[in-house]
Amino acid sequence: MYSLPSRDLEQLYTQYYALLKAIAYQMIGSHSDAEDIVHDVFEQLANKPLAEIEHVKAYLIRAVTNRSLNILQSARKQRELYPGPWLPEPVVSQIARPTRKASSHTEDTGGNEHGTERAGTSSSSLLPLAGTRATDLHFTSIYEYDAEQSLLQQEQIGYAVMVMLEQLNPVERAVFVLRESFQLDYAEIADYVNKTEVACRKMLSRIHARLQPIHKLQPVDNSSTLAFTEAFLEAARSGNFAPLLHQLREDIQLYTDGGGKVRAALHPIRSRYRVTTFLQGIAGKGAFAGEWSLISVNGTPGLQLQRDRAIVYVLTFAWDTDGQVQHVYMISNPDKLAHIDATTSV
C-alpha cells in the first residue's frame, strides 16, 4: 500500500491543519469533533499518492466538508434529545492585563450545585474591577502562539450567529460557513457540497433572509459592551441585577447549556423579569462564587468563572442595535469547556 512520506505529510499538516479545523469547528460547533475530522482526513491522505491529487488544498477542504456534513446529519437527531438548549463550544480569548481575585457575597455551599469537579483548567487574567476603562482593555488570545487558535479567532463568526446556525440544515450551514467566514468562491463551494453554483447562491440568499434578525444582534461599540460585561460581573458578585435592567430588552432570552451533567435550565428563560429573577436566584445559592475573567467569546465580550481550578461557566451576550442585551448564553457543560486552557493558575 502506498504511504505518503512522513516529511511531506507533516508539511501539509502544518500548512493546512489550522484552516481545516476552523472550517470543521464552524460547521459543527465542536472542537473535539473538529479535531477528529481533520485527523481522519490526514490519515486518509497518508495512504493516497499525491500525484493523484490535482489541488491538495481543495481536496482537503472537500474531505473535511464531507465529514462535517456526515456528523451534522447524525448530530441533528442527537441534539433533538439533548437535555436543554444545545450551545456551541466557545472560542475563548483572554484579557492581557491581570488583576485581583473577585469574591462572591455568598459562600459556595460545597454541594457544587451549579458547577463541576473537573480539574485541570484555570483562568489566567481577571476582570479589572476599578481604575481601568473598558476602552483600555486589550483582548489577546490565550493561544497567542498557536496558529490553529489564531485562525479560529481571525476567521470566526459571532457566537450568536453560531447559535442561530443550528436552524439550518447541514448543507445550508456548510454553504454559509464557507462563503461568509472563509470567502470561498461559489464555484468552489458548489463542488464541495455537490450543488450547482446557482443553487448555492440562492441558498445563501434564503439563509440571509432567515437569519436577518441575528445580523442585527451586534455590539453597538466595543466600549459599551465591555462596560456592560463589567457591570454584569458586579451584579453577579452582589446578587443585585437591578442596575442592569435598563440595559436588558424586555423580551431578553437566556440560554443555559449544562448538557445534563451540571444543573442548568432545561428551557430558554424569556423576559427581563424572569431572566433577572433566575440570575438573582442562582447568585444567592453561590453559583457565581469564584474567580472571574473578562474574556472574548468568538469575538464577543464575555465572562469566565473558575472555581477550584475548574472552569464552571462561560457567559457571553448578544446586543441589538440600540445597545440593549437581547440574548445571554451560559455554557456550563464541562465537556464544552475542556478545551479552554489557561496560561496561569490563580
TrEMBL record:
Residues 161-207 form the RNA polymerase sigma factor 70 region 4 type domain. Residues 12-76 form the RNA polymerase sigma-70 region domain. Residues 97-127 are annotated as: Disordered. It comes from the Bacteria. Pfam families: Sigma70_r2, Sigma70_r4_2. NCBIfam families: sigma70-ECF (TIGR02937). Interacts transiently with the RNA polymerase catalytic core formed by RpoA, RpoB, RpoC and RpoZ (2 alpha, 1 beta, 1 beta' and 1 omega subunit) to form the RNA polymerase holoenzyme that can initiate transcription. This is Sigma-70 family RNA polymerase sigma factor. It comes from Paenibacillus wenxiniae.
